[in-house]
């Protein structure tokens, strides 16, 4: 597993922590299932290209809105 792939679960969890979102809330925001978010956070699944793109857009939008700090170096 590449370094970027190892960092993704931590990034998902950190974003949820900063935004005070549950896994269910984040899933709703991204249009994916709760189980998908849970698997991403636990490193049991990698996001599809579409899922990663949705996550990246969400991450970028929250940074632009000032609701999230880019402590991980971006998506």
Helix/strand order: HHHH
Distance between the termini: 17 Å
Largest sheet, described in full?
Answer: none
Tally of extended strands?
Answer: 0
SSE class:
mainly alpha
Oligomerization:
single chain
Number of domains: 1
Q: Based on the structure given, which CATH architecture is correct? A: Orthogonal Bundle
| Amount of beta strand | under 5%
Number of helices: 4
The CATH class turns out to be Mainly Alpha
- The CATH fourth-level homologous superfamily: lambda repressor-like DNA-binding domains
Percent range for helical residues?
55-70%
Q: What is the mean predicted local confidence, pLDDT? A: 88
Low-confidence stretches: none
Shape: globular
Any idea what the radius of gyration is?
11 Å
Q: Look up the CATH topology.
A: 434 Repressor (Amino-terminal Domain)
Give a short synopsis of this structure.
By secondary structure, the protein is mainly α. Helices cover 65% and strands 0% of the residues. The model has no long low-confidence stretch (mean pLDDT 88).
């Amino acid at each position: 597993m590449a370094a970027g792939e190892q960092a993704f679960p931590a990034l998902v969890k950190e974003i949820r922590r900063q935004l005070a979102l549950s896994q269910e809330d984040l899933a709703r925001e991204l249009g994916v299932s709760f189980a998908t978010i849970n698997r991403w956070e636990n490193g049991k699944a990698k996001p599809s290209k579409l899922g990663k793109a949705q996550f990246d857009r969400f991450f970028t939008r929250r940074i632009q809105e000032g609701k999230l700090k880019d402590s991980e170096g971006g998506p």
